[in-house]
Design a protein that fits this description.
Elements lengths: L1 E4 L6 E6 L5 E5 L3 E5 L5 E4 L5 E6 L6 E4 L1 H4 L3 H4 L2
Antiparallel strand pairs: 1-2, 2-3, 4-6, 4-7, 5-6, 5-7
Bound molecules: zinc ion.
Zinc ion binds next to loops.
């Protein structure tokens, strides 16, 4: 796991290696969640799984939001 900055918007991001072996940029903020099928959030867990979840501040597990979902310049990443 490596912290860097988005080249498009300057946000702090973390690169996580997903279970398929690809590196994926996510926002560095931890989101505490409860796993839920068809939940509002798509999160990437620290070990690289993509899951559906609901936000839950009282939870003890966390994941990260894909930076593709939050970057104002996401279009530029898709090349
Ligand atoms: Zn960005």
């Amino acid at each position: 796991m490596k912290v860097s900055r988005c080249r498009s918007c300057g946000a702090e991001i973390i690169w996580i290696k997903t279970q398929t072996g690809k590196s994926m940029p996510v926002d560095s903020e931890r989101i505490y969640y409860t796993p839920k099928t068809n939940g509002l959030l798509k999160l990437v867990t620290p070990d690289g799984r993509v899951i559906s979840a609901e936000p839950d501040p009282s939870s003890t597990v966390w994941g990260y939001v894909s930076h593709f979902a939050t970057c104002p310049y996401a279009d530029r990443h898709r090349k």
